[in-house]
Amino acid sequence: MVRSSARRDKGIYYEYSPRSEGIPDPYISRKGLKEPTVCPSCHAIYHKKRWAFDEVMYLDLKKKKGVNWQKCPADRKIEDGYAMGVVNIYGDFVMEHRDEIISLVRSEERHALEKNPLERLIKIEKRGNGLYVETTTDSLALRIGKVLSRAYKGEHEFDWKYGDKHLLVKWRRQK
Length: 175
Prior knowledge:
Helix content: 25-40%
Strand order of the largest sheet: 8-9-7-11-10
Strand content: 25-35%
């Protein structure tokens, strides 16, 4: 059993608990996979207990026999529509700068993919006077919320649901 620590500071009670106590990602096997495993959709490779993009290794493994072919967790989440991060972007400012904001969101996805091929966008939709974005990880949703705040200011809220694996980000700006 893992215990959480607590402290009291300026009349506020804080409780800290390790991230591992939250709900685990149901798409990631705790036992790991046979190595190497290649995703037939995006060509990500599971090697040394990590998913990564390596085009040279992919071309080499494509020729070999005995390679395990299985969809990566990100492609399975996209296929199932299982979002672990949601970003609601709204306000008058959003409709005036929609194309710029979509470009910024896609750019942040490209930056996230460099470190982790499992961080992907599931969809971007126009809803009412804003945009609705779904991501495969909570960390990509958090990154998008932070980059919107840095680039365009505005107000933001980060709300973790169901332990610490599902994140709802609300970002808004009027004019």
